[in-house]
Please model this.
Amino acid sequence: MSKQVRKANVLSTEQITPHLQRIVVGSDDFKDLTSEYIGNYVKVLFPKNGEVDFNLKTACVRSYTIRHVDAQTGALTLDFVINMHQGPATDWAKIAKVGDELGIAGPGPKKLDNYDHSHYVLLGDLTSVNAIKGYVQQLPLTSKIDAFLHAPTEQDIIDLETNRDINWVITDSADTVMLSALKSLHITVEPPIVFMALEAGLVRKTKALLIEQFNIPRGNIVSSGYWKKGVDSEGYKKQRQRDAQLA
Model:
């Protein structure tokens, strides 16, 4: 990912579902950004005490997937989960207003790098909904796609701008219902490639199910715990940093 941090401003903000705030950010420095970056991620540098620290090493930083890029200006549309998790990003997204300053670094690459496979399984929730959107639009039309997205309410279902079938799993108990939904998977010839971005505990359980029940090789599974139940975003970030140092 580019280390360059671009200064940006909020162009618009709208609560589109009970748990999603859609914010468009723009900058004169975005003119090189095009639609090819839809589904990639950027790092967002948030204000602290009303001021933005533009140093990636010391700033309050979180990663977000690009939902849309304005063809003329390069303005980025990002969706923020609200009213579910605690942390500085959620707090900022709920009160952000037009003109507010922030920093944007990136874009960084997509997690999947194989676009020539016969079968893909995509698993996500509201934190990764736009990563799933990017993949279903980019994967080959000849490939089979099984996509499962968790949302807490039917009002949280959003348009992924695709004709592919998306299995929305609506429940407050994602742990059990998502695992149950996966049992309907039908694998024909070769093991699928799996992308999943979910709650950290659910990622572990799901990976075990895919490996043990469906014999999917570990190397076929691209996974990430975007958040952790019972831990706020700042605490989870520090926990991952400690784990990375010990690895």
Summary: Residues 134 and 221 are 18 Å apart (CA to CA). The chain has two domains: 5-108, 119-227. The longest strand covers residues 5-17.
